[in-house]
């Protein structure tokens, strides 16, 4: 995969490289634009996605990084790209929470339950926006990560975490309502967040098929059907 990112193969049609946070709407988007261009996807998390974009190893990135001051993504983008003209477009707003097996037999209701001896947690990869959000909350609640069984596990997608909960290998994971719905899990809502697409102005033309698609009613309908998504602000450009 790394070789593909550095030297995308000659497929006889346009190729863009996406690197960033895992999202079911992004997966949907890549399918919808597959007639127009190929998308190589690397789900490395929000922070590493921005680093990849900084190194010119991808065309576009996706992030949902919450700054301690309460602002999404923009402070991080300004930090990574002080010398470049960058574009930020909202893809979706989405809901995250605790995913548990159907029926929630261990009555897991909040992050405080992750500290219980009878609860096994499955975590996202370091650098992902979800894990960074979790770390901020645990610190504020004075909960030691060392006391959470499974905290050191690291999986790069919401669906991977959901599948482990479904298989009984963990009691709970933090993830998207859409992933919980897809795997038939119970869901305890915790927060809503904004997920943005970030790219350099010089790539605007090559990204036209993607940017045009997210404006269509077809894309909005498909995203809304995933559950836990809000497309009210999809396609809006956010000034840096």
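^ structure tokens above, recovered residues below v
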């Amino acid at each position: 995969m790394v070789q593909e990112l550095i030297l995308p193969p000659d497929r006889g049609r346009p190729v863009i490289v996406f690197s960033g946070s895992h999202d079911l709407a992004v997966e949907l988007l890549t399918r919808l634009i597959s007639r127009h261009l190929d998308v190589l996807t690397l789900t490395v998390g929000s922070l590493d996605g921005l680093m990849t974009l900084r190194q010119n190893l991808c065309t576009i990135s996706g992030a949902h990084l919450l700054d301690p001051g309460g602002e999404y993504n923009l402070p991080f983008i300004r930090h990574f790209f002080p010398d470049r003209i960058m574009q930020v477009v909202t893809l979706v707003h989405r809901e995250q929470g605790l995913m548990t097996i159907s029926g929630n037999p261990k009555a897991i209701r909040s992050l405080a339950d992750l500290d219980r001896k009878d609860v096994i947690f499955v975590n996202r990869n370091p650098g992902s926006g979800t894990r960074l959000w979790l770390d901020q909350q645990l610190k504020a609640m004075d909960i030691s990560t060392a006391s959470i069984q499974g905290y050191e596990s690291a999986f790069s997608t919401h669906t991977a975490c959901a599948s482990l909960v479904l298989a009984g290998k963990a009691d709970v994971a933090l993830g998207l309502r859409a992933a919980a719905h897809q795997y038939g899990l119970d869901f305890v809502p915790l927060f809503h967040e904004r997920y943005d697409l970030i790219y350099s102005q010089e790539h605007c033309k090559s990204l036209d098929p993607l940017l045009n698609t997210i404006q269509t009613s077809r894309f909005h309908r498909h995203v809304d059907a995933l559950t836990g998504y809000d497309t009210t602000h999809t396609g809006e450009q956010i000034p840096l």
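Residues 1-8 have pLDDT under 50 and may be disordered.
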